[in-house]
Amino acid sequence: MVNENDILFFSEKINRILGEISRDMIGQRDVVEGVVIAVIAGGNVLLEGVPGVGKTRLVRSMGQALALPFSRIQFTPDLMPADVTGTNVIEKDENGQNRLVFRPGPVFTNLLLADEINRATPKTQSALLEAMQEHTVTADGQTYRLSEPFFVLATQNPIEQDGTYPLPEAQTDRFLFKLIVGFPTTEELAAIVQMTQATMAETAQPVIGGDELLAMRAIAKEIPVMDDVLMYAMQLVSATHPELPSASEYAKKYIRFGASPRAGQALITAGKVRALMAGRFNVSFDDINTLAYPVLRHRVKPSFAAVTEGISVEDIITHLLEEAGGRKQNPIQTVTDLLKKKK
Fold it and tell me: pTM (2 decimals)?
């Protein structure tokens, strides 16, 4: 069972990680928190934003704060699957005989930055599928396990069309979150320019290593979820499916395809981490409401009617939350409350 010391340890580490990343990132608080939640929950993240808004910088800073081995792959149309996973090469042994030796690719790391992932061909994109889900790589019939923890943080440009290949549904579903990196405000832009005049390098210092990160993940798994909250999250996922008998008229009109069961898993797993970040012992309705956007925005596909009427995925999620009673709240017990009671 999780005790007060576990939650205090978790909150202290989280605050230090966020503090170090904030040294390199101006603004984008929600995006930074989303990446941290996903990493601790053990999920992959898709960062979408126009060039120059700090997507790659955020991932590099995250790698430094977590003190994990870090690799970067710049996805291009000519990138081959072997450039990602590795390949067998012929070498001579001590007896002068030829032998096949597997040379691991950049995917053999803990934190992988897949930069501009939508610029690679579908064949190369699919090279990451096994690694993202099973944390293994299969080459020539031999399966190699990746070291834990392992995460893929991918970036993509939403406005570029030439030379891009949209991610297949099977791959987008393997991202725990899709986070939108917006353009900074005028004040934030001025602060970014001033910061980068001093240095372009990331300044985040190591906070935790892989073992501590896995320990934090184990703590998060012990956080309880009330039956009402669990059912609320599952009903929200089911509400995205227009083919179900319980679907609303809104869903039938504006949703083409709904979210997979991975969405339900993501809401609960990430909700536990978010609860701990706030120093809480249980997942709340508010956790589900907040996480619904990064969990569902890449899993719900709008219908033709939604596109023609200018209804975005964000609008659909907002409506589904309102239909599900998305302003529900439940009593939340925090570490601070317990300490006050003890006094």
Answer: 0.84
